[in-house]
Amino acid sequence: MVVCVPVTADGQVGGGWGRADRVALAEVVGGRIASWQEIEVGWDRLHEEGTEGSHHARIARFLTEHSVDRVVAGHMGPPMQHMLEKMGVSVRTGAAGDARHVVMAEQN
Hints:
It is a single chain. This protein has 108 residues and is α/β, with parallel strands linked by helices. The chain has a single domain (2-98), classed as 2-Layer Sandwich (Nucleotidyltransferase, domain 5). It has helices at 43-46, 52-65, 78-86, 99-105; strands at residues 2-6, 22-29, 32-40, 70-72, 90-92. The protein has a 5-stranded mixed β-sheet with strand order 3-2-1-4-5, sandwiched between helices.
């Protein structure tokens, strides 16, 4: 399973999903994190460029390209959540704290 979570520079869960500066892609295999890759996405800067639809499409492309199964975030707007669920990506909001711990807690 590939889990994507917005992260801060100090490894905490970032607040908002659609305005994340950086995200982590965690591949979870056998109940443990097999790989962890942090990527600067710049969605915070890109959010206001173009339409909401183009921003959603940018995020959808990223998730598809990285075969993401689940997104875990502090919060996200209902339109974004609806789009992700329509794509078949499960969504968990309300996350806070150490991003790696949050990803592992999602496995339970």
